[in-house]
Design a protein that fits this description.
Elements (H helix, E strand, L loop, with lengths): L3 E7 L12 H15 L2 E8 L9 H11 L5 E3 L3 H4 L3 H13 L4 E3 L9 H34 L11 E4 L4 E4 L1 H15 L5 H10 L12 H8 L7 E4 L2 E4 L8 H13 L17 E3 L6 E9 L5 E9 L13 E2 H13 L5 H15 L2 H31 L5 H27 L5 H19 L3 H12 L3 E4 L2 E3 L12 H10 L28
Parallel strand pairs: 1-2, 1-3, 3-4, 9-13
Antiparallel strand pairs: 5-6, 7-8, 10-11, 11-12, 13-14
Helix pairs in contact: 4-5, 6-7, 6-9, 7-8, 10-14, 10-15, 11-14, 12-13
């Protein structure tokens, strides 16, 4: 009785099988071989899946049908089409031992169901597995070499493109500027992840399905060091050769915002403008706002907004009265006036600023020299850290964490050096912007834009405003420290002396306005 065979053809989508005959070519060759050898084929089975791990459904079903007696032979192009792992190869040999599988036919490989034939078949399966293992090792070695050269061994993130010809990652000129704008928007701490997704979607940066990116995708993008010139691989941060899209400074600002929003709290309903700006001066609880509607007998309706303590203190009974929004608006405007710059001060400060601008080159040169020394020191530390790791003096976890920290510090210094070399008067523009902002506080205090007043108050006073006896005020200085930032404190102190001295200016050193340290100054 003639044996029945399954014709099995497999084509993997993995890289190792790119040179293997396609499914159509296999079928053509196998059909011709079956006709030549007079092999009875009861069914052709086709599978498109890698054989390097067990679990191929078509292959497993074929073996089950052989165990059930539907056929007793398999026709395939080569043994590596049947198995590239020890489990599937062992199943084939076991079925041959049991007699349920009696014949294997290959146009490219000789096999007889004898001890010698099974031995040679096992060697062929072993060679197939060795090929897979060696290919994986060679691939990993190539990826590690790319990492050493500063090349990211993976798909380019949004804003970049994979250059197939040169096998590098280049900037996507159309999308890179949009990604940078997304970083800027989120760094301002006024946009949610969903807002960034909508912003990108408006500029045609979407998922493959045409939908806005999900929040976790946006978060992953904003936390990816690839955008400032580094990249993560193998649990470590490496320095890349690709062109950065954002500065390290902007990236760090985004990380601060992400950390602040890392544990989102349940949003509290605060419909009033000044909510979140003040706290109660008696018990320290938050100040909330509420609408009040007064209906008169003649039909007139009056709407008011009041601000009062939430009175949520567990042990202290708060007796602070409420205050109308109109009164609070006037008081906040008065507080902003105390830190605004009069026009004659603005003129004098700008003259001093112009004078200092010509002297800033020397100061910047000193900083650049010191920064370069720090960069060199960090480079030495990185080398010593690597030597300690290679000598097995420290654990891998310690090495990875410390390496990321030192590389981050070095990148920040290198960016500061480049920024100041390109514009050695880097502090001039922030100082000029601050003068303009302080001068514009007069208009903010006098106009009726409540949101602008709240935003200015938060920038200057933070959360230090207290509401006591229907008065918004700053608390007394604690241990000699003012609740204001130092530049605003100087303005308030100078304005307080206007009537005591003939000419009052914001006090600065006799040398001018240039900060004593280019890093960490208040502007």
């Amino acid at each position: 009785m003639q044996q029945k065979f399954f014709l099995y053809a497999r084509k993997s989508t993995d890289v190792e099988d790119k040179q293997v005959l396609s499914i159509e070519a296999q079928l053509t060759e196998l059909r011709a071989f079956a006709s030549q050898e007079q092999i009875e084929i009861i069914e052709e089975l086709i599978e498109k899946q890698s054989a390097k791990i067990p679990g191929r459904p078509v292959f497993n079903t074929m073996l089950e049908r052989i165990e059930a007696g539907e056929a007793s032979g398999i026709l395939a192009w080569h043994p590596d089409r049947l198995a590239r792992n020890s489990v599937d190869g062992g199943k084939i040999v076991y079925l041959l031992d049991c007699g349920q599988l009696t014949a294997l036919k290959f146009p490219t490989f000789w096999f007889e169901n004898t001890s010698q034939g099974k031995f040679m078949l096992s060697i062929a399966f072993g060679q197939s597995k060795y090929y897979i293992d060696a290919l994986a090792e060679n691939t990993k070695r190539g990826l590690r070499q790319k990492v050493r050269r500063g090349e990211f061994p993976g798909p380019a993130p949004v804003g970049y493109l994979n250059d197939v010809r040169n096998k590098t990652i280049i900037v996507d000129k159309r999308r890179a500027s949009i990604v940078k704008q997304a970083f800027v928007l989120y760094a301002q701490n006024s946009s949610r992840l969903a807002d960034i997704a909508d912003f990108l979607a408006k500029h045609s940066i979407k998922t493959s399905g045409g939908l806005p990116l999900k929040k976790d995708q946006i978060k992953k993008m904003l936390a990816n060091p690839f955008y400032y010139g580094h990249f993560r691989y193998g649990g470590e941060v490496h320095e890349g050769k690709h062109q950065p899209v954002v500065s390290k400074k902007l990236f760090d600002q985004v990380q601060i915002v992400l950390a602040q929003r890392g544990r989102p709290q349940k949003a509290k309903k605060q419909p009033q403008i000044f909510c979140g700006l003040l706290s109660c001066g008696s018990c320290g609880m938050a100040v909330t706002g509420e609408y009040k509607v007064k209906r008169q007998k003649n039909g007139n309706v009056h709407e008011y907004t009041y601000y009062r303590c939430t009175k949520k203190h567990k042990t202290l009974k708060c007796l602070e009265p409420c205050i109308r929004q109109e009164q609070l608006d006037q008081q906040i405007g008065s507080l902003l006036q105390t830190v605004s710059l009069p026009q004659d001060w603005v003129v004098t400060l700008n003259e001093m600023l112009s004078k200092d601008e010509s002297q800033a080159v020397q100061s910047c040169a000193v900083f650049v020299q010191g920064a370069r020394a720090k960069v060199q020191s960090l480079q030495s530390k990185l080398q010593r850290l690597l030597d300690s790791y290679l000598d097995q003096d420290i654990e891998r976890e310690v090495y990875v964490a410390k390496k990321a920290q030192l590389m981050s510090e070095r990148k920040s210094l290198e960016e500061q050096i480049v920024r100041l070399e390109q514009k050695q008067t880097g502090w001039i523009e922030p100082m000029r912007n601050w003068i303009a902002e302080a001068a514009g506080l007069c208009l903010v205090a006098e106009n009726s834009d409540l949101l602008a007043k709240k935003a200015a108050s938060q920038r200057i006073f933070g959360s230090d405003l207290r509401l006591t006896n229907r008065r918004a005020r700053l608390p007394a200085a604690v241990r000699g420290k003012s609740p204001l930032e130092k530049q605003w404190t100087a303005v308030a102190a100078a304005r307080a002396q206007i009537k005591q001295i003939e000419k009052s200016l914001v006090l600065v050193g006799g040398e001018g306005l240039e900060p004593s340290s280019l890093i960490g100054n208040g502007f």
